[in-house]
Amino acid sequence: xxxxxxxxxxxxxxxxxxxxxxLSVAELRERWPQRTAAVxxxxxxxxxxxxxxxxxxxxxxxxEAGPGFDPARRKDRSRFLLEVTGEDGHAxxxxxxxxxxxxxxxxxxxxxxxxxxxxxGVGAQLVVPSDRCGARYISxxxxxxxxxxxxxxxxxxxxxDRVADQVVYGDGGTIGRPV
Length: 179
Description:
By secondary structure, the protein is mostly beta strands. The protein has helices at about 25-30, 60-65, 75, 95-100, and strands at about 10-15, 20-25, 35-45, 45-55, 80-85, 90-95, 110, 115, 115-120, 125, 140-150, 165-170, 175.
């Protein structure tokens, strides 16, 4: 793990985006409208929790990065996944459809404050207000990766392979794009 000074915590927005970017917590607070979510969830280690988070909507941040799907095609949008990883290695996956206004419209946040305290020193936190348990509340986010799943969508709207990640298995084999 790389130790960074407090003011240098960044999230890398990568994968199937036109404009990959690294954003600090302060930039997340300054560049997008801030939403507030008062949430309650069950934490496996500390029991019931209630907090108020503030930050931009995840979909707005990814939209500005230029997601690699055709925004006019609902079926294209519904094939994309977001993998969110924290500094401690904890990761989770959301579908684009969960956060898309035409589908689930879930107000998932990249929180910049927790109970009124700025998160610049510890990094942004993923907040999924609809979840009853806190397992997808990723702290100290380091990366958000957009990727396609399934068939033709793997080539993205530009016909290139930016979206086609290969999965490497323990025996050294790989699975890539369908041929």
